[in-house]
Structures are given as structure tokens and as C-alpha cells.
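Weekly puzzle thread! Below is a chain. First person to post its structure in C-alpha cell form gets bragging rights.
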Amino acid sequence: MLYKILEKSSYEDFVKNLISDYELIGPKKKD
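Winning reply:
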């Protein structure tokens, strides 16, 4: 099912949302 969602147009948004959720629930990255 995921491969259907990961389209060229939706891929970037999906990744951005994934990163946003990771930063919220996960530890903050150190630059």
C-alpha cells in the first residue's frame, strides 16, 4: 500500500510529514 502512496508528487510531502513526526516524538538532532 505504501508504494502506491509514494508517488513523485506525494513523496516529498510524505517524507516531510515523516520527518516532522520523528522530530516531535524522537530526540532532537544535534547539528
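Puzzle host: Confirmed. Bonus trivia for everyone else. The CA atoms of residues 4 and 10 lie 10 Å apart.
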